[in-house]
Design goal:
Elements lengths: L3 E4 L9 H14 L6 H7 L5 H9 L2 H6 L3 H18 L7 H9 L4 E4 L4 H11 L7 E3 L12 H16 L10 E5 L2 H9 L3 E5 L13 E3 L7 H10 L1
Parallel strand pairs: 1-2, 1-4, 2-3, 4-5, 5-6
Helix pairs in contact: 1-5
């Protein structure tokens, strides 16, 4: 039985993957490395900045020569914030779906993004208070596709439920909404079912998901409940 939703953030709620690509690309170009959009989408979706810079620069020694990982991440964050504040886009239908789902189910979020970025965007969309638990990239030791992000989100969600005198939710009672193969693997390894949204990559790349939809635009809560119930 469906009892909770857990959302990814970038590529599911916030349409900002190009902002992440452009800001990462800009920092890497300053260090003499060029990356393509195709390579970024193939290697970086679902990963945090640390892993993306290791991939882009090739090894930890080269990272140290740039001034260190913290400096790289700060530079990328600055460029990203400039792009995000100039243009903030949310995927069609997702905020409406979240508002409807929150009336019936507890909601959590597990993302490899920074908490400040997540909270800023959710507040701008007016949906930040609808999430009972948020887990950001700096709050876990293992990143997707490891199950830790979604297990930690569920742990925090259940803590809120217990504090409110409500029964906790089990992994099999959660539906994760993701846009990357790594995120879907994380959900499945956590014992949860996953709905893939082919908004950043093709439906074929999300084949490990239990279900795949183009987006949440024009998708009702009841339709998703029927999917979950029918398995």
């Amino acid at each position: 039985m469906l009892k909770a939703f857990l959302f990814d953030f970038n590529g599911v709620i916030l349409d900002d993957e190009d902002h992440h690509y452009e800001s990462l690309k800009r920092v890497l170009e300053e260090e003499g490395v060029s990356i393509s959009r195709e390579a970024y989408y193939r290697h970086c979706l679902g990963f945090n900045d640390f892993e993306c810079f290791l991939w882009g620069l090739g090894n930890a020694r080269r990272v140290r020569k740039t001034g260190g990982m913290e400096s790289l991440v700060q530079r990328k964050s600055l460029y990203y914030q400039e792009l995000l504040q100039a243009e903030t886009r949310f995927f069609p239908g997702v905020c409406e779906f979240i508002r409807t789902a929150a009336k019936k189910y507890p909601l959590g979020l597990a993302s490899m993004a920074h908490r400040s970025e997540i909270e800023w965007a959710l507040a701008k969309a007016g949906i930040g208070r609808l999430f009972s638990a948020i887990v950001s990239g700096e709050e876990v030791t293992q990143t997707k596709p490891d199950p830790e992000p979604y297990l930690e989100a569920l742990r925090r969600l259940n803590r809120k439920l217990r504090d409110a005198g409500r029964d906790p939710v089990g992994p099999a009672e959660c539906l994760v909404i993701e846009d990357s193969a790594q995120g879907i693997q994380s959900a499945k390894r956590a014992g949860m079912r996953a709905l893939g949204l082919a908004q950043s990559v093709t439906a074929e790349e999300l084949r490990e998901a239990d279900w795949v939809l183009p987006s949440l635009e024009h998708v009702s809560l009841n339709e998703v409940e029927v999917l979950f119930k029918g398995r």
